[in-house]
């Protein structure tokens, strides 16, 4: 994304608060994150919006991070009728039934260990890469995993915000 202002960014800057809140909730399920992004409008550039997102993601409490993760379906099971999760998890769409079954088992083991969904920025990742990531991350400490989850959430938020302010251009 360029650092200049775009028509999509101008549109986002001028949305009514309620509409902007709804749009931001589609980016990240954390209400605290959304309030922080909303409070800093208007943004001069798309890069300023992304920097604000990074700061808001870094500032999430453990509970707010849990809220954000609750908005993400398990890998291999995108929300029915949700084009965003289907698009982001495209790498699992062509996976074999064996890989899909393995991912389901790995997701359940991860969730049992950490108490939340396995979160990864799946955009551009293959099913095998996602499988390998969940396998390796299941051995992390809860503290290590929270840091990784925060980083992955930041990547997802950046991709979704970029889409929000460039759609239709």
Q: What does it look like?
A:
The protein is mostly helical. Helices cover 67% and strands 0% of the residues. The protein is built from 10 helices and no strands. It has helices at 7-14, 17-27, 31-39, 46-58, 62-70, 83-88, 90-93, 97-114, 127-137, 142-166. It starts with 6 loop residues before the first helix and ends with a helix. The model has no long low-confidence stretch (mean pLDDT 90).
Describe, in short, the structure shown.
By secondary structure, this protein is mainly alpha-helical. The chain contains 10 helices and no strands.
Please tag this protein with its features.
single chain, 169 residues, mainly alpha, 67% helix, 0% strand
The main pleated sheet reads as: none
SSE-based structural type: mainly alpha
Rounded to the nearest angstrom, the radius of gyration is 16 Å
Mean pLDDT: 90
End-to-end distance: 12 Å
Portion in strands: under 5%
Layout: helices, strands, pairs:
Blueprint: H1 7-14, H2 17-27, H3 31-39, H4 46-58, H5 62-70, H6 83-88, H7 90-93, H8 97-114, H9 127-137, H10 142-166
Helix pairs in contact: 2-3, 2-10, 3-4, 4-10, 8-9
């Amino acid at each position: 994304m360029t650092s200049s202002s775009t028509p999509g960014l101008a549109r986002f800057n001028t949305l009514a608060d309620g509409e902007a809140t709804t749009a931001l909730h589609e980016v990240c399920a954390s209400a605290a994150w959304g309030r922080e992004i909303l409070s800093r409008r208007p943004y001069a550039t798309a890069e300023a919006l992304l920097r604000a997102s990074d700061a808001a993601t870094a500032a999430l409490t453990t509970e707010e991070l849990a809220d954000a993760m609750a908005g993400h379906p398990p890998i291999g099971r995108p929300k029915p009728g949700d084009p965003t999760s289907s698009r982001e998890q495209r790498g699992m769409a062509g996976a074999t039934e064996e890989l899909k079954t393995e991912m389901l088992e790995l997701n359940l083991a991860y969730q049992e260990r950490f108490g939340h969904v396995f979160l990864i920025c799946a955009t551009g990742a293959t099913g095998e890469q996602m499988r390998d990531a969940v396998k390796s991350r299941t051995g992390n400490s809860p503290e290590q995993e929270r840091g990784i989850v925060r980083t992955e959430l930041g990547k997802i938020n950046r991709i979704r915000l970029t889409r929000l302010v460039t759609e239709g251009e």
